[in-house]
Design brief:
- There is one protein chain.
- This protein has 564 residues and is an alpha/beta fold.
Length: 564
Amino acid sequence: MNDLRKSFFRNNKLLYLLSLALSVASMIILIFFAYVAQRLLDVANKGSLDELKSVILFMFILIAALLIVELLAKSIKAAFFRKAMYQYKNDAFGIITKKGISSFASEATNSYLSILTNDATYIEENYLSGSILIVVKLVSLFGGLAMMIYYSWIMTIAIILLCLIPIAVSVVVGNKLQAVEKEISEKNESFMGKIKDLLSGFFIIKSFHAEDTAMRLFKEENNELEREKQRRKNTEGNINAVSMVLSGGIQMSIFAVGAILAIKGQITLGVVIAIVQLMNNIMQPIQELPILFAKKKAASGLIDKMEGLAKSNEEEVGTLKLKNISDGIKFEDVSFSYNGDDKLALKDLNLSFDNGKSYAIVGESGSGKSTILRLIMRGYLNYDGAIMFDDKDLKDIESTSLYNLLSMVQQDVFIFNSTIKDNITLYKDFDDAKVNRAIELSGLKSLIEKKGLDFNCGENGVNLSGGERQRISIARSLLKNTKVLLMDEATSALDAETSKLVLDQILSLEELTRIVITHSLKKEELKKFDEILVMKNGEIVEQGTYDELITKKDYFYSLCNISL
């Protein structure tokens, strides 16, 4: 797996180096201001007017240079950050899209929301900007020390010895910030997950008058998050307070040493002022570097967290490319449990879906109907037995080639906040005749005539009815023109007339294997299928045509009578 840190610098190294160089140049100019201060004071004390003019001219040159460098640095750093974060978030989202269905389903989506929003912001501020700032602060520290050595090695040694104290303290307390930041990230994920749950269940909350409960749950999560953020601020404040007290004590000590050396005539008053000014170049880094290093380490931990989620991909990678399905799909002694325990969703399942035939799967809720489709779609691979596509084992088949031959329509339809056409084509180019055919077969023609292909569906299809969303989902699957069509309650939101029309159209398609899960036990619909599979407790208890099953007067017969 590629290190996500490389995303920041891919085709972006020049901007990074320019940002770093200009930031360092700006700090070097600021260090030379101490030299200007020393020269101004000493020339004013014992120099001439011509010397003063030269120093003032040099001062204005430095000011102009600083202005130019700062303007360039701000612009180039902004360009670097933009490209770095653009590439990082693209790569992070790319990692998510490469995960297996089962791996993704087992994880909370709010983890990814946090990674791509709050965590990304923290990484930009404390990993990218922090990396440049650390170098700048180090230049300030060592540049200031170099200038101090130039003026007085005695004062420099005194400063170094005194600075060892805050450095030692900062190493001890700085590591606490990483643990706090990790905890905040986890609390933020939980908070976002709670918001998502509460907003998703808004209708239920209102209809059951559960506003007080929703408010209580929100307050609890919000309180936990803000309490952890307060803990971070307290930790940062403690580090700052310790650094500030120590730096103040050191600064006063340096004043005392400088005063002694000035009285003895070993240095001038201008040198004392220059060294005092250079103290800012020393003390600020000592105060800030521990926090900068701690925050960068914490931000690095968030990058590792993203990579950790990528490593959690449980999907086994198949290598065989499935080019066609000639015979069909077979389940051979397949048993499966969602939680890996003894509670089996499927038990020793043996069945065949022959190429080009239509199958209806019926049974009570929880009988294992949807599980069959999920396994066919390679959603879970931790099953026992074998699922064969012709003579190829599903576990050995590459996902991309498999999905080129399968399409699935689910009861819960995902709709992009875009046009009807974009939602049918999924932003791909298709021949108009093929699009129109899919529209006709899915029963969308009247909707298109009324609203047009460019009608915006809204966020998750808010501008459409449930039936319209399902018809769009059916159209996109038919447009894909695969060998196998899987439908899980795909017509449940349609009115009876439209449902019959769509089902008739789909069942009339030749050379298409149709596997349809349905709760509808209407005679006129089920008689159209080549075979009906009746499920109970994860097993196929009956199978045959509608007439054959009704004649047996067994479990299917009782289901049909109950539904009447």
